[in-house]
Amino acid sequence: DVKVTQSSRYLVKRTGEKVFLECVQDMDHENMFWYRQDPGLGLRLIYFSYDVKMKEKGDIPEGYSVSREKKERFSLILESASTNQTSMYLCASKGVLNLAFFGQGTRLTVV
Amino acid sequence: GDSVTQMEGPVTLSEEAFLTINCTYTATGYPSLFWYVQYPGEGLQLLLKATKADDKGSNKGFEATYRKETTSFHLEKGSVQVSDSAVYFCALSDQAEGTALIFGKGTTLSVSS
Fold it and tell me: Which of A33, A90, A102 comes nearest B100 by C-beta?
């Protein structure tokens, strides 16, 4: 079975902290994505990566950065967490036939 | 840019009722179309897909047909179950490599017995 694994299901962080959300896929996919999900807003793309060390901004990159040092791992970094970054974060990877597979999500609360 | 519009919820149905969730899209090319489902507390799972006009995707009793002339990909199920209660997302992806999926805002379905 294909698998996308996010390192945490739930996180609570303090305002101003640097936060790392990790995502690992085992499907040898080129493309990986980070979305955030908020009620009434659906899924919004933060960043994506189409190859190792390559990244592209999505619709809402402000306050975030990403790292992709290895093909299987794509990290989302909140440089200085703020309360408006409290959200559900979803990682996905995409391979052939444009099929995307999602992790279970990380619910982040910034206090 | 490309976009997806789906009907707003919540949709509340009784068990065995017929379900339709409308989805329309705007795209410059010929995208692939998808329906994803999210059960409470979970990530998204692929429900079905279609890659070209007139293709019908189907899975678990759900169906959707890629209609290029109406730019639509409506989700249907003949008889819903309580276990179908979830959030449903319509999405598109350009056929080119290295492009992201674009999602609608999601439709919450609640089925009661």
Answer: A33
pLDDT value at residue A98: 77
**Chain A neighbors of B100, CB-CB under 8 A:** 31, 33, 45, 48, 58
Q: Where are the alpha helices (DSSP H) in B7-111?
A: none
DSSP B67: B
The answer to whether the beta carbons of residues A75 and A67 sit under 8 Å apart is yes
User: How far apart are the C-alpha atoms of B3 and B83, rounded to whole Å?
Assistant: 29
Q: Per-residue pLDDT tens for A39-61? A: 888 899 999 999 898 899 999 99
| Contact with chain B for residue A30, Cβ under 8 A | yes
- Tell me how close the Cα of A50 comes to any Cα of chain B, in angstroms: 5
Q: With beta carbons under 8 A apart, name residues in chain A contacting B49.
A: 97, 99
Cβ neighbours of residue B68 closer than 8 Å, sequence gap 6 or more:
B30, B53, B54
A59: closest CA among A78, A33, A82? A33
Give tens-digit pLDDT for B36-70: 999 988 889 999 999 999 999 999 999 999 999 99
CB contact under 8 A, B46 and A31: no
A16 contact partners, CB below 8 Å, separation of at least 6? A80, A81
Average pLDDT over residues A1-10: 88
Indicate the SS3 state at residue B54: coil
Q: What percent of chain B has pLDDT over 90?
A: 81
